[in-house]
Amino acid sequence: MSKKAKLVAAYLKGRPIWCSWQVTPRCDGPCAFCDHRSEAGLAQPELESCRKIVRELSAQGTLLVSLSGGEPFLRSDLPELVSLVAEAHFPLLTTDGCLVTRSRARAVWEAGLEAASVRLDHADPELQDRAVGVPGAHARALAGLAALAAERTRPSQQVNVKARLTGADVSGLAGLLKLAADHGATVTVEPAFLLTRSAPASTGLAERLRLLKSEHPNLRAGSYFLSRLDESLAAGVGSCRAGQAFFNVDHHGQVSKCVEFRGPEDRVGRLEEEGISKVMGRLKVVHAANECRSCWYASRGELEGLYTLRGLLGALPGLLRA
């Protein structure tokens, strides 16, 4: 049975189909908006430990596994890790792009990487460097994006730019969309976490993005995500499927319902010690009590869209295609 068929089977059985995994706590830049710099001295999991985690994930079924950190390219063994994940799953990756060279990009593509996202909020170098708080961050991210785009080994491998929406002004997005298109990349946009509530200027943001999408087809904003975007900024989107459709694994192998809930009180078990069956049972309990409305990430919107008839029918042809 192909991995795509196994992914569909996991969905039909009501199992999670997405796992975010922080494969390192380390990061290469003290970005002003991120707290990972406080974890820079922590040890990252050894490859053998990662192998055990992958084995447990595989017992659950086939997943979309999003590798992040910290900065995953700080792992010298990243291609080996991607290869481990690719045996039974679909490995994805998010990076700031600053450590990506053409040789390193080719290595992860050859290892079986399906998609890579580069974090970049602005086409304007000055605005990006100021937002990150690191001079030259834009140039380094752009070089990483170019390397990932150039070194793809098969047409189905996707490169994406991931941008944060910090307000209702989307005038700068056209430039970012053009920059991404020049590298054969898509763009996803999402409100920053935590969501800012009841911002009057946010009204109509979804419609502005729809108009942008009509002019820039590489804007990857699904209909379900857009249909609830304004709602998310006003009051948050309820009925979150964290713990049901997706879950998080941190660099210790500890499982929680999502990437934003990784504290000691949020963890439901350690995969290497307890196994996937016990952990999944506890995740069901956590999901049943979940009332969080604090995010509307693009990945959440894409996943939850699959639980609507329109979203499922739209995704099935791609999932089932050989």
In terms of topology, how is this protein built?
Blueprint: H1 3-12, E1 18-22, H2 47-60, E2 64-68, H3 78-86, E3 90-95, H4 102-110, E4 115-119, H5 125-132, H6 137-150, E5 158-165, H7 173-181, E6 186-191, H8 205-215, H9 223-227, H10 229-234, E7 246-249, E8 254-256, E9 269-270, H11 271-274, H12 276-288, H13 298-305, H14 309-320
Parallel strand pairs: 1-2, 1-7, 2-3, 3-4, 4-5, 5-6
Antiparallel strand pairs: 7-8, 8-9
Helix pairs in contact: 2-3, 3-4, 4-6
Would you kindly provide a written description of the structure presented here, covering whatever features stand out?
This protein has 322 residues and is an alpha/beta fold. 41% of the residues lie in helices and 14% in strands. The model has no long low-confidence stretch (mean pLDDT 91).
Overview features:
14% strand; 14 helices; TIM Barrel; single chain; 9-stranded mixed beta sheet; 322 residues; alpha/beta
